[in-house]
Specification:
Multidrug-efflux Transporter Regulator, Chain: A, Domain 2, mainly alpha, three-stranded antiparallel sheet, single chain, about 45% helix, 3 helices, elongated
């Protein structure tokens, strides 16, 4: 059987994703018969049309969606205020520690 070879742009259009995503999938080996043709500008991936039959895109693994309506979720302003307070307290403790160290070194 003579199959049609598709470019990453053609595969991307058929699957509704970007060409960059298709190139990433090619490098990961998700298209078993895809191959890279060397060019002066880098490899040009070619995917046989048969590899698209029954192809399931991988599940997204990025950041999970934001929770909505969660009353226990911290608000950004509250989180920033807590971080600023903790930073000030740590800085004050460090300054107090340095003053104690200076007093000890001057007594010698």
């Amino acid at each position: 059987m003579n199959e049609i070879d598709l470019s990453t742009a053609q595969v991307a259009e058929r699957l509704g994703v970007s060409a960059i995503t298709v190139r990433l999938w090619c490098r990961r080996g998700l298209f078993p018969n895809a191959y890279a043709m060397p060019t002066a500008r880098g490899p040009l991936w070619v995917v046989p049309a048969g590899d698209l039959k029954g192809f399931e895109p991988p599940k997204k693994t990025g950041r999970p969606p934001k929770a909505t309506g969660d009353p226990t979720a911290a608000k950004p302003a509250e989180t920033t205020a807590k971080l600023n307070k903790a930073f000030r307290e740590a800085k004050e403790a460090e300054e107090a520690s340095q003053k104690t160290t200076k007093k000890r070194s001057t007594k010698k």
